[in-house]
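About this split. The held-out portion is used to measure sequence recovery: a designer receives only the structure tokens and must propose an amino acid at every position. Recovery is the fraction of positions where the proposal matches the reference. Here is one held-out target exactly as it appears in the evaluation file.
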């Protein structure tokens, strides 16, 4: 928030935020640092998905646990896949 002067004596930070139509909490917001472990896991998920796009979060979790020795919960795998915008799909076989 470059438009807010924290050293201003006449206007409080609350009033400055109000004049700019900002929430006061957004003035103090600091984004969380990037988690390297999360970045690594997402990269591996992306590699697996590139090879096997039909795999869902359950099979993806199994591969991460067994092949890559990354002990991760299926819920976390599902959340990462959802954040990445990927999901498995079902291959339908037709018999005639």
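Reference sequence for scoring:
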């Amino acid at each position: 928030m470059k438009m807010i002067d924290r050293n201003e004596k006449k206007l409080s930070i609350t009033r400055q935020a109000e004049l700019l139509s900002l929430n006061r909490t957004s003035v103090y917001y600091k984004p969380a640092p990037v988690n390297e472990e999360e970045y690594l896991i997402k990269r591996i998920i992306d590699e697996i998905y590139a090879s096997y796009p039909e795999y869902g979060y359950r099979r993806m979790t199994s591969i991460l646990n067994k092949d890559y020795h990354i002990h991760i919960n299926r819920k976390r795998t599902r959340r990462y896949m959802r954040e990445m915008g990927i999901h498995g799909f079902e291959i339908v076989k037709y018999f005639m």
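Annotator remark: The first helix runs from residue 13 to 19.
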